[in-house]
Amino acid sequence: MKNVHCDNYHIFFKNLANPLKIGIIASLKEKPSSVNELSEKLGVEQSKLSHSLANLRFCSLVNSKQVGKKRVYSLNKKTILPILRIIDKHRQADCAGCKLK
Amino acid sequence: MKNVHCDNYHIFFKNLANPLKIGIIASLKEKPSSVNELSEKLGVEQSKLSHSLANLRFCSLVNSKQVGKKRVYSLNKKTILPILRIIDKHRQADCAGCKLK
DNA sequence: TATTCATATGAACCTATAAACATATGAAAA
DNA sequence: TTTTCATATGTTTATAGGTTCATATGAATA
Fold it and tell me: Which band of pLDDT confidence, cut at 50, 70 and 90, is reported for residue A69?
């Protein structure tokens, strides 16, 4: 089922404007994971992750599929990786002097 | 002077996660403008714009130059236009059924 | 160098979003 | 068919960020 809403740019970007969600994205970039796996890896409580993942799903930034009892989330790489690449480039070009983490 | 800070992804994206700032970006995409010009065009109070513009400048999403008494802001198109293009593509591919504005 | 125009800054308030915690749902195995 | 594991959802509280308004700074002209 694909009929999600991505109303407007700023709704989409709210997902990227949040450290936890960026953490989730970074983790899913490495490999698809269940909620509990993310919870252990990131040291974050389960319901917090579920709430965040619901937002990410809402704008199709992640996909999920049921695997036994677990639900495995994966990243929509086609959209996200190019964006991250642009940001990295931006930081090198225009933020030369700043404290990158 | 270019030594601004763009600490982290989410700080950068906060600028895009805000309708007013998206409005500013959309307007500057058309043409560079002073604060007062933006104020009239967008129907938004001056100090509100100055605050927003300060954030946008902080992450080098806009540039500014003094022209007489006015300060003219312009868009960092090199970074922003590619991002907007990705989002548009994303909305067509993955948000086929949603209410686009 | 006082005055005006243009923008920036500060601080208090307000609101939207995230955190926290309890509870519900759902899937599979006993 | 109930028990357990895994995730989602609802509600309250806390907090970050935006708005507002008053004031400060800065650039140019008289």
Answer: very high
